[in-house]
Amino acid sequence: MSAIRIDVLTIFPEMVEHATRFGVAGRARERGLWSLGVWNPRDYASGNYRNVDDRPYGGGPGMVMLGEPLGKALAAAREAQREHGCATTRTIYLSPAGAPLTHRRATELAGARDAGYVLLAGRYEGIDERFVEREVDEEIAIGDFVVSGGELPALMLIDAIVRLLPGALNDAESAQQESFAAGLLDHPHYTRPEVEGAQAVPAVLLSGDHAAIRRWRLKQSLGRTWERRPDLLAQRTLSKEESALLAEYRSERGG
Fold first, then answer.
1. Residue 178 and residue 62: Cα distance in Å, rounded?
2. 8 and 81 in contact (C-beta within 8 Å)?
């Protein structure tokens, strides 16, 4: 399998290129686990001003991105993915109208190691719908809110995918134990000092009893999810141990 390839269509290519040089994504690029291409639709626009947007039909505020320069940039990105050796190419539009990004979806995308992804980072009021219907395979949203452009959502999707690639994290267990990996929120974490102000690290974490620590962490994960994201619990079938731990957690808090 070839390393994963991600291309981003954006009018701010420097923003994407710069941000992916740091942290987990940057180290993974240096290790050859994935590669990045950025494509500016302005480079494929016609006319003296190289416009990539125009007024919307029907009136209203804002501008809409033109399909023609996007199409030419997309064709170049897809060709680069073929040259890279990608068996398939999937075009993803970062859009508030898309399906919410989940850990499961990020895992699926990271698992298709022979695939390439082209991410569309829209701007203005959006992209001409005809282009979306013709060229986009999937729309993904990062939350129920709107940001100024698709670059930040694209970077979040890249990070969510890349950190799941084998070898991206120094400790392979980190990805397996993070929030949402098991359908639950993560448990609390503590480090030195043992006592800070009037607050001490929970005694069980200092006990050296690994079974008791595992049980405590699972109970905290279940309890946090019950308090903060009950929708996640509604989608999960609890084991006997998990049901007992959650009941214990709720009893301790008068719930």
1. 40
2. no
Residues 205 and 93 in one domain: no
Residues 187, 152 share a domain: no
Rounded to an integer, what distance in angstroms lies between the CA atom of residue 105 and that of residue 114? 16
Is-above-0.85 flag for pTM?
A: yes
> Are 26 and 86 in a shared domain?
yes
Q: How many CA atoms lie within 13 A of 44 on its CB side?
A: 19
Nearest to 120 by CA among 52, 188, 63: 52
Regions of the chain short of the pLDDT cut 50: 1
Predicted confidence (pLDDT) per residue in 1-21, tens digit: 468 999 999 999 999 999 999
The total number of structural domains in the chain stands at 2
Residue written as token pair 């709107």: 146
Residue 151: give the domain boundaries. Answer: 4-162
Instruction: Name, in order, each residue with C-beta under 8 angstroms of 78's C-beta and a sequence gap of 6 or more.
Output: 89, 118
Convert 145-183 to b/e letters by CB count within 10 Å (16 or more is b).
eeeebbbbbbbbbbbbbbbbbeebbeeeeebeeebbeeb
- Do 229 and 108 lie in a common domain? no
CATH code of 115's domain:
3.40.1280.10
